[in-house]
Amino acid sequence: DEIVHQSSQGSGTITLGASGETITVPTGVTLDTTSATQNRPAFQAGRSGNQTLSSGASTVLAFDVSRYDIGSNYSTSTYRFTAPKAGRYFFTTSARIDNASSGGYLRCYIGVNGNSGYGGNNFSYGHVISGNNHSTDYESLSVSAVLNLSVNDYVQVFAGKHGDTASNLQGESQFSGYFLG
Fold this sequence. Notes:
This protein is 3% helix and 43% strand. The protein is an all-beta fold and 181 residues long. A hairpin with a 4-residue loop joins β5 and β6 (80-82).
């Protein structure tokens, strides 16, 4: 059987119970939440190995392994999450960079539609920088941001190495995000 709102024939709101009440689903009943899950896109991506970051350049971080991707909106070939619907999304990344070299600085930022959002000494999409006092062996950079996206906006993570040598993004780095509403 199907519950249908009689006055609007498929559109509108159907309320089950009232505030403070509990709705019980009996044992053996299958609850299909597929559409609810697809309306809440989320993903986590990681690395299959190390990635070289050249000195003096910003590089798209190649998160090429999908750990989960609810709604199939993350691409392991373009390293982009593409918003399936407009709204606010939370993104976070953790980048471990080896061969950090104490003579330069590291920068990690979230970009939207290939743009860093940089303007007037401000990265509007989320940014972290680590200066000359970091370890010469490795550095961990984490960035989080809540972004207001339109349909088909895409989000990527970038890192830049500014100093005397190239560095490596390590395999345990990750990028994730989810729809807030």
